[in-house]
């Protein structure tokens, strides 16, 4: 193995504290870590390094002037905005932070699902008005989730955890929709694309944890929403472009859908005039499903392990399939 020291540039991330980020300086004894606190510092360092751990990405111009660069660790999980045609054609290895957010985002999915099932938005409104409404005749009855069916679209790091919690914690029947790996032990049945419409009609809850690709963009369109079981819940913690937002609003207004828990939107921040804000059967969170008190530690642990693997020539975690787009 070559003894040449490897150079890695690391940029800040808004959920990672400086003392957490500093742990990357000791990820491997043969790696020199350079911290670029601004985009300008990053731009200056990029031509001199072997790898970058960053959310800034690499432009085609930067790629052309960075001859040593072999690996790019994206600080987030989604790479749809990162993958320029030049980057897809390049030999650059790209990894995404796919694993650490799995449990955190799955917890958010379950939180939104249970909040809708128990109609917590109405309870919160009653609390503000000091109004006591207890019985089903006065309000929408709470739904029991145990034994219901959840369809998990995208059984990756997040979807696997949603399936696990739903199956083991809530005794749910779990249907899974996945392009490649189909080895989650908590999925009762995987469905093919041709079966998706029928599966939507079986599900009491549909949970989205797919990447955005040409094949998944607006996978929940007007036809898919019409196929969903009346009164079902839609949970989206992935990307807003997975859903036809206008069709979703119509399905919620008509009462066909029982509710939606939304953490991702076509336009972010969600415009103040969006009807979604005022629909009583919608819970909105501002793309925060993974942001918890422990996210910074999870991120740094993942990045540090990948720096170690890079230095040792071992397979990297979170490898991105540039052709598939995730």
Secondary-structure blueprint of this entry?
Elements: E1 6-10, H1 18-21, E2 31-35, H2 39-45, E3 51-54, H3 60-64, E4 71-74, H4 85-89, E5 93-96, H5 102-117, H6 120-129, E6 149-153, H7 157-170, E7 173-177, E8 189-190, H8 196-202, E9 205-208, H9 222-227, E10 233-236, H10 245-254, E11 259-262, E12 282-284, H11 295-312
Parallel strand pairs: 1-2, 1-3, 3-4, 4-5, 6-7, 6-9, 7-8, 9-10, 10-11, 11-12
Helix pairs in contact: 5-7
In CATH, the homologous superfamily of the largest domain goes by the name NAD(P)-binding Rossmann-like Domain
Remind me, CATH topology of the largest domain? Rossmann fold
| Quantity of strands, as a count | 12
Query: Can you name the CATH architecture of the largest domain?
Result: 3-Layer(aba) Sandwich
Tell me the name of the CATH class of the largest domain.
Answer: Alpha Beta
Oligomeric grouping of the chains: single chain
pLDDT average, as an integer?
96
Q: Could you say which overall geometry the principal axes of the C-alpha atoms support?
A: elongated
Neighbour order of strands in the largest sheet? 8-7-6-9-10-11-12
